[in-house]
Design a protein that fits this description.
five-stranded antiparallel beta sheet
Length: about 270
């Protein structure tokens, strides 16, 4: 068997316009290894020869769709280098160069990617980055605080609450703030308080034990239906996605420690002036 001239073979392959996307990335990596080691293992030889066969089949295939090639070239310049969309479009480039037609599903996904990377979409994302801090960050922070103790949106929540310069994508923002739970949380913030600052409230009989033995009151000091509290604030961070979730900071009369309770667990104190 004739000795393989790896330099010549690599030069020829890397100059082949049919070698694109991840196939090109792989072969460039293989070439760097050979350049450094000046040797090819059995496994690397196998993959190199398989790629040569693949390129030969592509060269003999029907001519590529020029219109589709232009669409793919345009969208590839607009997608992130390591994004799923880039990888998908690169696979379509290879398929098109091999003369194989795209399926209806592939064409549908391509159209969606094109729409997401159109001139209008790019301008919209630029505008979003500018508008987020002024118009949307407050909403993101409110919802992020609700999710802080859950397993959802963990990394996103951390970035929103700890990095003032972080801007989520519009898709991330909508996913976190427009679901049914977030809407209930935001509705709680927007609702007018039933009990104004400075008014007197007491616990409802439906208040759970956790509300009757809140942290900070002191050991052995249980709040009950006779405990009268004065409302200090009505805009504490909301942590429940339900009706009556607005949270109040309260000070039990005669006490020194404040407590925070949800609106659903308190009622107006009768006979207190």
């Amino acid at each position: 068997m004739a000795r393989i001239s790896w330099k010549t073979r690599f030069d020829s392959m890397l100059a082949n316009p049919l070698l694109v996307g991840r196939d090109r990335t792989f072969m460039e990596s293989l070439h760097r290894h050979w350049t450094t080691k000046k040797a090819m293992t059995k496994g690397r030889k196998f993959h190199f020869l398989k790629m040569e066969e693949k390129l030969e089949r592509m060269a003999k295939a029907e001519p590529a769709d020029a219109t589709l090639a232009a669409r793919l070239e345009r969208v590839l310049t607009r997608t992130g280098e390591r994004s799923w969309a880039r990888g998908f479009c690169e696979s379509l480039v290879t398929q098109n160069l091999s003369g194989r037609l795209l399926s209806d599903k592939q064409l549908s996904i391509l159209s969606k990617i094109e729409a997401e990377h159109s001139d209008e979409a790019l301008v919209s994302r630029q505008t979003w980055a500018t508008d987020y801090a002024a118009k949307h960050r407050g909403t993101a922070v409110k919802v992020a605080k609700y999710y802080l103790t859950s397993v959802y949106f963990g990394d996103l929540v951390h970035k929103i609450l700890n990095d003032g310069d972080f801007v989520p994508t519009m898709k991330q923002f909508n996913a976190m703030t427009e679901n049914k739970y977030a809407k209930k949380v935001l509705a709680g913030y927007e609702a007018a308080p039933k009990y104004a600052k400075g008014s007197y409230v007491t616990l409802r009989s439906t208040a759970p034990s956790a509300a009757r033995w809140p942290a900070g009151v002191g050991r052995g000091k249980r709040l009950d239906n006779s405990t009268v509290c004065i409302v200090l604030s009505t805009d504490e961070d909301i942590t429940s996605a339900c009706a009556g979730n607005k949270r109040y900071k309260l000070l039990p009369i005669g006490g020194a420690q404040t407590v925070t309770l949800e609106e659903r667990y308190v009622k107006k104190a009768r006979g207190v002036k």
